[in-house]
Design a protein that fits this description.
Number of strands: 21
Largest sheet: 8 strands, mixed
Radius of gyration: 23 Å
CATH topology of one domain: Cation-dependent Mannose-6-phosphate Receptor, Chain A
Distance between the termini: 44 Å
Strand content: 25-35%
InterPro entries: DUF604
Helix content: 10-25%
Strand order of the largest sheet: 11-12-13-17-18-19-21-20
Oligomer: single chain
Structural class: alpha+beta
Pfam families: DUF604
CATH superfamily of one domain: Mannose-6-phosphate receptor binding domain
């Protein structure tokens, strides 16, 4: 614990993480509930640290069979997904008096705990909130609903809403045996209580297949909270398996969770280059001048969730652009190699990945790596703030290594080649 915050009284923020049942075993945990004891100084300040303390896990909780679900020759048993569902009143009736949020996720959901806590701290936990995000797939949203939070991406229910839900959940669930998944049934019961979804785009269901590169390099301007389906898509880093790739990403998460995947764009006027940094993941160097809105759209390196779906923009609920089939028409990509921090600054290094024989301008052809310097991104805990994208400068001369400095933009500064 740092001296600057050691004397401040600790404020305990407790969340109960509930795993929804899925068929996946990629990140299968041997607990249905994980209690996260997260401590941060009180009152929150822009420079305060967030501490994650481990403690013994509570005993596994197996939700009992819902009342009215017993089977007999004249009353067939309910669908297994309903009878064994954690969407049970007992989930919320654990006697935990200091739990502020109930957080749901699948057994293959990867959370960034610091960002989860930071986002939830914007909201008053004493009011009724249902927080999450829908699917990236238009087709999946049409099959389910655009108004629900998908359990794979994770969602949070404030404690007062959870208590209200526990009182009506047993009877409510019996109206929705036809719905697929606990997340869909829970959302229907929350709707009946008069509450709608509060969307936070950092929750990622990731209903896509293939290469996530285009999605991860065009993350929205909000903290990354979760990733899902990482056992289905390709490894997010080259020459690593899926587990190694996630572990590699979390090297950067540990250094600066608030900045992970945040996109920063800068221009090299002398060499006519456009550079996009998805911090902690990859740097792309484009030939020529690309307008910022074009860069912010995700390249369709991925494919639709339905295997025979046509990979067109209408398949997705976010802006996309083409991903050239010809590798020589793509930007040169540098993937995260290492990250280190100290004295208030963070250094990250990205190594060139492209091995294709393409004709490139000398300014690109000679580049071997990119080094990025930044300050740790601090979010004001408990404050709903308007985020502004950072600016960056390319430090000259650029030879075999490009050095980029990420900084706050000036008051009237534009992110453009010729502002």
């Amino acid at each position: 614990m740092r001296n600057s915050v050691a004397k401040l009284p600790a404020r305990r923020l407790k969340l109960l993480l509930i795993l929804l049942f899925t068929t996946s075993t990629f990140y299968l945990l041997n607990r249905h509930h994980i209690l996260l004891n997260l401590h941060c100084p009180s009152p929150p300040t822009p420079t305060s640290d967030l501490f994650l303390h481990t403690s013994p896990l509570p005993p596994p909780h197996h939700p009992p069979q819902l009342s009215g679900t017993s089977s007999s020759p004249s009353h067939p048993p309910p669908p297994p997904s309903l009878a064994a569902s954690p969407s049970s009143p007992s989930v919320f009736d654990r006697g935990e008096t200091d739990v502020r949020w109930f957080v749901f996720g699948d057994d293959d959901t990867v959370f960034v705990p610091e960002n989860l806590v930071g986002v939830l701290s914007k909201y008053d936990h004493e009011k009724w909130y249902y927080i999450g995000c829908n699917s990236e797939s238009s087709e999946q949203n049409l099959r389910m609903t655009f108004g629900m939070a998908y359990g794979g991406g994770g969602f949070a229910i404030s404690s007062p809403l959870a208590r209200a839900l526990s009182r009506v959940l047993d009877s409510c669930l019996m109206r929705y045996p036809h719905l697929y998944g606990s997340d869909h049934r829970i959302s229907s019961c929350i709707f009946e209580l008069g509450i709608e979804l509060t969307r936070e785009p950092g929750f990622h269901q990731l209903d896509v297949r293939g290469d996530l590169f285009g999605l991860l390099t065009a993350h929205p301007l909000s903290p990354l909270i979760s990733l899902h389906h990482l056992e289905i898509v390709e490894p997010i880093f080259p020459r690593k398996n899926r587990t190694e790739a996630v572990q590699h990403l979390f090297k950067a998460v540990r250094a600066d969770p608030g900045r992970i995947l945040q996109q920063t764009v800068c221009y090299d006027h002398s060499s006519n280059l456009t550079v996009s940094v998805a911090w902690g993941y990859a740097v792309q160097v484009f030939e020529g001048h690309l307008l910022l809105p074009d860069i912010l759209a995700a390249q369709r390196s991925f494919t639709p969730w339905r295997r025979r779906g046509i990979n067109i923009p209408s398949q997705y609920v976010f802006d996309t652009r083409d991903y050239p089939q010809d590798p020589c028409k793509r930007p040169v990509v540098f993937f995260l190699e290492d990250v280190a921090s100290g004295t208030g600054r963070i250094w990250s290094k990205y190594r060139r990945n492209n091995s294709h024989s393409c004709s490139r301008p000398d300014a690109i052809e000679n580049l071997k790596d990119v080094k990025v310097f930044s300050k740790k991104l601090q979010h004001n805990a408990g404050l709903a703030m308007v985020l502004r994208r950072d600016c960056c400068d390319i430090i000259h001369p650029v030879k075999k290594s490009m050095v980029i400095d990420i900084r706050h933009c000036g008051i009237n500064e534009l992110i453009a080649m010729n502002p």
